[in-house]
Amino acid sequence: MRILLTGGGTGGHFYPLIAVAEAINEIVKKENLLRPEIFFMSDAPYDAEALVQNGIKYIPVSAGKSRRYFSILNFLDIFKTGWGVISSIFKLYSLYPDVIFSKGAYNSFPVLLAARILRIPVIIHESDTVPGRTNMWASKFATKIAISYPDTEKYFRDKDKVAYTGNPIRKEIKNTPEASAYEYLKLDRSIPTILILGGSLGARIINESILNALPKLVEKYQIIHQAGKNNIESVAKTSEVILTNSPYKSRYRLYDYLNDLNMGMAAGAANLIISRAGSTLFEIANWGIPSIVIPITDTNGDHQRNNAYAYARSGAATVIEEANLTTNLLISEINRLIENKDLLQKMSDSAKNFAKLDAASKIARELIEISLSHE
């Protein structure tokens, strides 16, 4: 049984692949099946340690990116993609996996084209409300299409192939140990905690809004702020100046990046989360935490705005668009939510209802069944 994973230019695309691999290994162990060989083929391993931990073998393949703006790199990347397709054909022919699971993105294109030529079954997964170009193309020959939002189904012609599975979440992220979170992070249980997530690289506009609101926020709340690796120095210096004379400066906790352990602890203590509208929304839904979502403007297909409003329609979140984001509005919205316990509970319940905790196992089961049918 050989299963190949592809895609993963960002954490939002890569870690669902890891979640599915975890589920495959879990099902195989539970049902005493022959342990599968799992491979990951892409232009970069993204998180090599996660691959090793899950027994996934990395196979490099070149892939060129198609940009929506003029760049000489678009011309050069045509050759990278062409070579990637040729090398993918040879590598897939040598390996000949039973099935391929793809998260889309430009770096999955050479592998998917090679799979189509070699007639290897493909299952694709779309995390956003609006499908990316690679997934739209691959949907024409994919065996199954898994989606994270029910609204996404309308973009695919063959509805019989579409399954609303939700987004796969890794086991480490699912756990939020509330009992030990306050002690681990040295937080006061009696003070509400707000968690700000701008992504691993951070979000400048969110950081600036939080810093402007910081003196008032720390008067009422404890703040856990993931500012991003690119912004940590400037945010640290600015926050130090802003809170110099504040008696509540110890309530502000700044991180460049929250690893799995710290993220779980932070989520375990959080009463409210402020976030972008990428794959993090599914982690927030899994945790059942109310949120304020600030989508990125001008993403491909405007998918972050669509994601944000699709999630907000479930009742789990409110949305503030970047054009409307002001210090006063942010503070006002935080106060409105935190001070309304009934509303927070309803939002929490809605988040849990939105979450699909079995997404990884559903996809893993389908991959295993296709693999076993080839035995």
Strand order of the largest sheet: 3-2-1-4-5-6-7
Number of discrete helical segments: 15
Mean pLDDT, nearest integer?
A: 91
The CATH architecture designation of the largest domain is 3-Layer(aba) Sandwich
Instruction: Output the CATH homologous superfamily of the largest domain.
Output: Glycogen Phosphorylase B
What is the name of the CATH topology of the largest domain? Rossmann fold
Beta content comes to 5-15%
Overview of the structural elements:
- With 375 residues, the protein is α/β, with parallel strands linked by helices.
- It folds into 2 domains: 2-169 and 357-372, Glycogen Phosphorylase B (Rossmann fold), CATH 3.40.50; 172-354, Glycogen Phosphorylase B (Rossmann fold), CATH 3.40.50.2000.
- It contains 15 helices and 13 strands.
- It has helices at 11-30, 48-53, 72-95, 109-118, 133-138, 171-174, 178-185, 204-220, 232-242, 260-269, 280-287, 303-312, 327-338, 341-354, 359-372, and strands spanning 2-6, 37-42, 56-60, 99-102, 122-126, 144-147, 162-164, 193-197, 222-226, 252-255, 272-275, 291-293, 317-319.
- The strands form 2 sheets. Strands 3-2-1-4-5-6-7 form a 7-stranded parallel β-sheet, sandwiched between helices.
- Helix 1 crosses helix 15.
- The longest helix has 24 residues, at 72-95.
- The protein is elongated and about 65 Å long.
